[in-house]
Amino acid sequence: MCGILAVFGCVDCSQAKRARILELSSRLRHRGPDWSGLHSEEDCYLAHQRLAIVDPASGDQPLYNEDKSIIVTVNGEIYNHKALREQLKSHKFNTGSDCEVIAHLYEEYGEDFVHMLDGMFSFVLLDTRNKSYIAARDAIGITPLYIGWGLDGSVWFASEMKALSDDCEQFMAFLPGHIYSSKNGGMRRWYNPPWWSELVPSTPYDPLVLRHAFEKAVVKRLMTDVPFGVLLSGGLDSSLVAAVASRHLIDSEAYCQWGSQLHTFCIGLKGSPDLVAAREVADYLGTRHHEFYFTVQEGIDALEEVIYHIETYDVTTIRASTPMFLMSRKIKSLGVKMVLSGEGSDEIFGGYLYFHKAPNKEEFHEETCRKIKALHLYDCLRANKSTSAWGLEARVPFLDKEFINVAMSIDPKWKMIDRDNGRIEKWVLRNAFDDDEKPYLPKHILYRQKEQFSDGVGYSWIDGLRDHANKQVTDSMLANANFVYPENTPATKEAYYYRKIFEKFFPKNAARLTVPGGPSVACSTAKAVEWDASWSKNLDPSGRAALGVHAAAYEDTK
Amino acid sequence: MCGILAVLGCSDDSQAKRVRVLELSRRHVLLKHRGPDWSGLYQHGDNYLAHQRLAIIDPASGDQPLFNEDETVVVTVNGEIYNHEELRKSLTLTGHKFRTGSDCDVIAHLYEEHGEDFVDMLDGMFSFVLLDTRNNTYIAARDAIGITSLYIGWGLDGSVWISSELKGLNDDCEHFEVFPPGHLYSSKTGGFKRWYNPQWFSEAIPSTPYDPLVLRRAFENAVIKRLMTDVPFGVLLSGGLDSSLVASITARYLAGTKAAKQWGAQLHSFCVGLEGSPDLKAAREVADYLGTVHHEFHFTVQDGIDAIEDVIYHIETYDVTTIRASTPMFLMSRKIKSLGVKMVISGEGSDEIFGGYLYFHKAPNKEEFHEETCRKIKALHQYDCLRANKSTSAWGLEARVPFLDKEFINVAMSIDPEAKMINMDEKRIEKWILRRAFDDEEHPYLPKHILYRQKEQFSDGVGYSWIDGLKAHAELHVTDRMMLQAGNIFPHNTPVTKEAYYYRMIFERFFPQNSAKLTVPGGASIACSTAKAIEWDASWSNNLDPSGRAALGVHNAAYKKNTGPVGSVKLAPNIIDNVPRMMDISASELVIQG
């Protein structure tokens, strides 16, 4: 990942302003520790902090077209950049960077090219010929982007809120799948897949089609010029990523440079379920497996930093981000700059336990659509910012555009949980990789139910967080919470504690509005809380035991 | 390098204090750059020891703070102990058990065994704070020359603060100072004691005759012991004598080391400069000769100027020469780190030990020559050590400096300074004894013309327009009126040039406390001389440019009176391909400066 910051139309173009932009840009340096670039053009500034993954030697940013009239600063990876280069034969490229295609595509197609990009990205592009600019964010919001407005009429774009929150009067999350154009001053959605309408699809389930789509999604993410690995919690999603990556590593570019040994990483409290599960998968796949341990105290000590980096006060996100944040630092210290990760599968396939209670396939499908659309506020935000805090890049094959199209066109009746027919959650995905001849994973791993949310890193993690918050937040603080925090009022001491830290770093009203709220049970949307009458009484945001739908719970009731 | 921060006896053991210490030690802008790999915080009552780790030795298990067997002695260390294996052996014999493979693990055990009197047994660069929880006492110490940085401060609540960088304690201390190198602070006495006590410290004139082979061996040993690493490394190569020797020796001995087994026997070398700069060419030539994997990094004057604020924030000085030289090193360090390299070997210290600065040409006699070298070595921690350590640590890169090996300094500083004196009639240019020591006909370390060449000094090597660009930029932002009032605004170490004023403004913004400005040295200097050496030439006191270019009239070319055409600095690129190019350039420079 890289960090981008762009400011257009500021009244002041002095050295002091340049120094200020540099200072603000350096707040994003954790995202791109490898190099900084700043292009200024009259009252426009495009700044970049680079993490070099493709073409480390020459791909420093901002990037330009041939005559330097178009300037672009990009955070992201364009997986189909070679194919696009082919199409742009008449254009001359200055670097080997995958992001350079953006400037040339704009030259060729104007503003209507974003859908041609296959990857994760946020970028800002300045056309100096007519002093217009555009900004865009990838389909799902895998990369973060914020937009803000200054009192002097300036428009700001930044990868993280911390780069613009102090200097903007108003700001908000830049909507995923959208493009902002200075010509009409507004946002327009460029991402327009069939599933967006939330109409219930009818394509029958074909395991091989699904398998191939996912394999392609993983393989295209092996494009790298630097050492990489896989985050492996031992659950279904990360284990599939690891299995597919290790199977196809040998044919990839990365293999030629960094060898065929796949590195896998797992973190947990000592003896945690994830560590045991991941070790088992790693042994099966023969990866170079790295285990990292943290203590509850280390996690608590990291909370302030986590919230500063992640820029949210959402309880589940903070709980899950902290171990990922600690692990990312360790991974980076080993020289690894990129990891593949399993985010998105639970949203696409309805993998959360509360989906057991989906009343019918229509509701099931609509909930998956809502979950995917909200990913940028939750798991995408966590995965991106926890890793970027240490200059590590996370790639998420489940959020491949093609793959989502395939998975979201399947008749949702196949995704429904059906205990009588032995279909647990995510059965369509499990079954797609159930290959008896050349097994991807042993059956008991392929079909196991794993801990959800942050329980996997060790049960005492969440308990420890609660205990700590209980000590720091008094009853009277919580009693007055709705006066202190009228919006998204924290309902627990833990939430109050996180909120307090968040407000310290991001005191503006606009900042708290970037974080979602509302009732949720075990990560459901507010709508899905209606699925079970008992849920609205027990709104623990995390999953453990709240639902009574884990396999163990089914057995208990027998 | 790592970052350490200790707060001792702060009479506050609340969560709020813990959060504050954590924030100071790790918030993205503070010490985390020094040790990006892991953080540790140990709290014992109202004592806090925090650590930000850069893992070079034993990345897997050596997280800090480190403990003795029963965890009663806790230590947080920034540094490398090169003789840790030997020390371990002797400590194991007396029954000590080690928990990690970290080189710094020995410190807790040495303290257990020897009490406070063990610092001189450590061979390396280090700063550490050690807490003895049995009697709630603590000690802190800094290496002999001050290769690693360390500051000490005092809070209003009676707390004592010790931190790798100023920025770790300046906001919370009422008063703070540089922790003197070679010293030990003990809470028992509440005072400093110098533990480093070598012969040369008295500045008495030594008489050992010059033996080239003794000097060569001593330096080779110093380089070899610095190849101890579990991570990828390289050498900083400017193409001058010092860095070229470091590279040559490293390349020669790399094959036999543990480092080579892990990371291959191919040596990586790194050089930074404006495009077409003298350093880039000189370094490329040496790299080609040695067959290293050479990496060139180019920066523009604008890149450098954009980095100045960052540089001053990181380097914590307003010294003009240091800032000029730190900026390219700072930019290069980022690029080096992005290649996955975590440690580099660098050539600092040679000019001080051997009197390599051009102004040494004017040393009136060997006594003055020797005393000046002693003064220069003692001041290194405020100049080149500070630059080398903090420019690299800003990006989590560690710099090792073999010229500042304790043994090597002892050998080099025991030589009769007569041998170091510059004597143009006998063709002894500066640092001749070092050049001669590596002049091996059978197995040449370097080609003769490199071994005996005079190179650009200070920041000229990265490209002549660098310093000109800095000056021009400062001219734009500092008015004459500001200069007129400089003495009133900055009564201490008053800036005498617009460039100095510009740096000072930035420094004051980051470090507004009075204590902060006192940590930076000042006073008159000519081309990096101490104030004392200005007396060597009457004309010098009239021309106090802090950098070296052409101010002295002592470069080879000047002796030849080969003054060349009068021209602007911009002529340089045209001359650059001539042989011997560097001398010619200096000649024309000389004329410009008059």
UniProtKB/TrEMBL annotation, chain A:
<dbReference type="GO" id="GO:0006950">
    <property type="term" value="P:response to stress"/>
</dbReference>
<keyword id="KW-0436">Ligase</keyword>
<feature type="binding site">
    <location>
        <position position="231"/>
    </location>
    <ligand>
        <name>ATP</name>
    </ligand>
</feature>
<dbReference type="InterPro" id="IPR050795">
    <property type="entry name" value="Asn_Synthetase"/>
</dbReference>
<feature type="binding site">
    <location>
        <position position="267"/>
    </location>
    <ligand>
        <name>ATP</name>
    </ligand>
</feature>
<feature type="binding site">
    <location>
        <position position="98"/>
    </location>
    <ligand>
        <name>L-glutamine</name>
    </ligand>
</feature>
<dbReference type="GO" id="GO:0005524">
    <property type="term" value="F:ATP binding"/>
</dbReference>
<dbReference type="InterPro" id="IPR033738">
    <property type="entry name" value="AsnB_N"/>
</dbReference>
<dbReference type="GO" id="GO:0005829">
    <property type="term" value="C:cytosol"/>
</dbReference>
<feature type="active site" description="For GATase activity">
    <location>
        <position position="2"/>
    </location>
</feature>
<dbReference type="InterPro" id="IPR029055">
    <property type="entry name" value="Ntn_hydrolases_N"/>
</dbReference>
<keyword id="KW-0061">Asparagine biosynthesis</keyword>
<dbReference type="GO" id="GO:0004066">
    <property type="term" value="F:asparagine synthase (glutamine-hydrolyzing) activity"/>
</dbReference>
<dbReference type="Pfam" id="PF13537">
    <property type="entry name" value="GATase_7"/>
</dbReference>
<keyword id="KW-0028">Amino-acid biosynthesis</keyword>
<keyword id="KW-0315">Glutamine amidotransferase</keyword>
<dbReference type="GO" id="GO:0006529">
    <property type="term" value="P:asparagine biosynthetic process"/>
</dbReference>
<feature type="binding site">
    <location>
        <begin position="341"/>
        <end position="342"/>
    </location>
    <ligand>
        <name>ATP</name>
    </ligand>
</feature>
<keyword id="KW-0547">Nucleotide-binding</keyword>
<dbReference type="InterPro" id="IPR017932">
    <property type="entry name" value="GATase_2_dom"/>
</dbReference>
<dbReference type="InterPro" id="IPR014729">
    <property type="entry name" value="Rossmann-like_a/b/a_fold"/>
</dbReference>
<dbReference type="InterPro" id="IPR001962">
    <property type="entry name" value="Asn_synthase"/>
</dbReference>
Automatic annotation (TrEMBL), chain B:
<dbReference type="GO" id="GO:0005524">
    <property type="term" value="F:ATP binding"/>
</dbReference>
<dbReference type="InterPro" id="IPR033738">
    <property type="entry name" value="AsnB_N"/>
</dbReference>
<dbReference type="InterPro" id="IPR029055">
    <property type="entry name" value="Ntn_hydrolases_N"/>
</dbReference>
<dbReference type="GO" id="GO:0006950">
    <property type="term" value="P:response to stress"/>
</dbReference>
<feature type="binding site">
    <location>
        <position position="236"/>
    </location>
    <ligand>
        <name>ATP</name>
    </ligand>
</feature>
<feature type="domain" description="Glutamine amidotransferase type-2">
    <location>
        <begin position="2"/>
        <end position="190"/>
    </location>
</feature>
<dbReference type="GO" id="GO:0005829">
    <property type="term" value="C:cytosol"/>
</dbReference>
<protein>
    <recommendedName>
        <fullName>Asparagine synthetase [glutamine-hydrolyzing]</fullName>
        <ecNumber>6.3.5.4</ecNumber>
    </recommendedName>
</protein>
<keyword id="KW-0315">Glutamine amidotransferase</keyword>
<dbReference type="InterPro" id="IPR001962">
    <property type="entry name" value="Asn_synthase"/>
</dbReference>
<dbReference type="InterPro" id="IPR014729">
    <property type="entry name" value="Rossmann-like_a/b/a_fold"/>
</dbReference>
<feature type="site" description="Important for beta-aspartyl-AMP intermediate formation">
    <location>
        <position position="348"/>
    </location>
</feature>
<dbReference type="GO" id="GO:0006529">
    <property type="term" value="P:asparagine biosynthetic process"/>
</dbReference>
<dbReference type="Pfam" id="PF00733">
    <property type="entry name" value="Asn_synthase"/>
</dbReference>
<dbReference type="GO" id="GO:0004066">
    <property type="term" value="F:asparagine synthase (glutamine-hydrolyzing) activity"/>
</dbReference>
<keyword id="KW-0067">ATP-binding</keyword>
<keyword id="KW-0547">Nucleotide-binding</keyword>
<dbReference type="InterPro" id="IPR006426">
    <property type="entry name" value="Asn_synth_AEB"/>
</dbReference>
<keyword id="KW-0436">Ligase</keyword>
<dbReference type="InterPro" id="IPR017932">
    <property type="entry name" value="GATase_2_dom"/>
</dbReference>
<dbReference type="InterPro" id="IPR050795">
    <property type="entry name" value="Asn_Synthetase"/>
</dbReference>
<feature type="active site" description="For GATase activity">
    <location>
        <position position="2"/>
    </location>
</feature>
